[in-house]
Each structure stands twice: as structure tokens, then as C-alpha cells.
Amino acid sequence: MITKRIIPCLDVRDGRVVKGVNFQGLSDVASPVELADRYSREGADELVFYDITASAEGRKLFTEILRETASRVFIPLTVGGGINTPEDFDRVLKSGADKVSVNSGAIRDPSLVPRAAERYGSQCVVLSADVKRVDGEFRVFAKGGRVDTGMEAIGWIVRCVENGAGEIVVNSIDTDGVKKGFDIEMLRRVCEAVNVPVIASGGAGSIEDFITLFREVPDVDAGLAASVFHFGQIEIKDLKRRMAKEGIEVRRNL
Description:
- Helices cover 34% and strands 28% of the residues.
- The chain has an eight-stranded parallel beta barrel with strand order 1-4-5-6-7-10-11-12, surrounded by six helices.
- Helix 7 links the parallel strand 10 and strand 11 (198-201).
- The chain has one domain (5-245): TIM Barrel.
- It contains ten helices and twelve strands.
- It is globular.
- By secondary structure, it is of the alpha/beta class.
- It has helices spanning 32-42, 63-71, 86-94, 104-108, 112-120, 153-162, 184-193, 207-216, 227-230, 236-245, and strands at 5-13, 16-21, 24-30, 47-51, 77-80, 99-102, 125-134, 137-142, 147-152, 167-172, 198-201, 222-225.
- The protein starts with a strand and ends in a 9-residue tail after the last helix.
């Protein structure tokens, strides 16, 4: 079994971390700078920072709060939101990101992934796919889960990997914020279809949900969550100790 990563997610709106359910009803949580510093110290393997309204509002990602957050973090940082051109990749990487996540920008311009991969390397290009079941099909959504693109999700993910995406974050809209477990069926399908690291997002409510994820989908590389970490429902050190006890390899000493 490959070593598994635990990744807190900072969904940022107007410079503050927010959280909702099924991508709706967002409420204020905390400062991204404070949370990033806390997670870096508590044993998180990486962090994901999403400016979740940048694409919907047609603007660029806020770089000032990103720079401040990156300055406090000593683990890999993936950043997304409003990424539409290779120049956006450049700006975000220069602000302190290690990897750049693209979602709606790649849907609008599928050439963005291969152009960014050629310029910065596939290891810097992360495809974030917001996926929801529609009429029995896994469908890709854009603009923070607001717009149904009509595209079948597995085919879209495979296409982006073939074009240079080096990592996939699969965000299940159906399970997001519900805290009843990850979308095992969807994650299996994605892991079977690609040969790059896959990060599971959406649905974590307990330590057991992470154990089930890594047991049921052994090819998944990481579990990503937000509110269960933000509100202290799961402590990262406790999660990693339980994973180790269950024979699931973890990164970083506890």
C-alpha cells in the first residue's frame, strides 16, 4: 500500500476560510493564515488553498492573502481559483504555491493543461474536478459547482491526464459537507481510469471515513477534508495514529 497523505482544504472567499454543504450555504470559519500555520504544525502533509469565488466572479485569485499564507507554511501548498492562463500559473507559483489547481479554466480552454504542463512540468499541474451524479452519469460542474457542463467526468479526467495533468483532486458534490463518508464508487472509477495520484475530497465526517477510504480504494493517494479539521472534529495526529494502527502507511512523524 502506498503512503497516504492527509490534506486540509482552505476554501477562501473574500480573504476568509468558509465552509458549506453540497457547495451551498457558505459560512465564515477563520483566517486562512492562522489555519495554514496550525495545520503545518499539527502534521498535515500538504495544504490546498482555493479562492472559491474567483472563477464565478470572473476575477484573478487574491495573491496578497496567498503570499501571507504561503509564508507560514512549510509543507507543499496547492492553490486554485481563477486560473485561466499560463500567466496565472506563473503568478500563483511566484506567490508561494508549489502546485496550481485548475478547474473552470481548463473547461473553458482545454489547451491550458498541456500548455501549463509544458512550461512548468506535470508535477505542478493539478486538475480539480467537481463531480455530481446527473441522470445516473458522473457529470463535471464548473464555477465552484454552480454550472453543469454536460461533460461526462471520467472521460474528462482521463483527457486532462493524457494532456499533462500530474495529479487529480476529485470533489464529490453529492457528498461535500454531508460527513457521511467519501464517494467510494466515484473514486474507484477515477483510480481505475488514470495512473497519476488521486486525492479524494468531499464527505469526511470521522476518522472511520478515512480508514474506509484507504481500505476500499487502496489506489487513492490522499484524503482531503475541511470542516472536520477546521472545527476540531478530527485531530490530524489522532487520525494518523489510527491509520498507522490499522496498517495504513502515513507520512511525517507524529
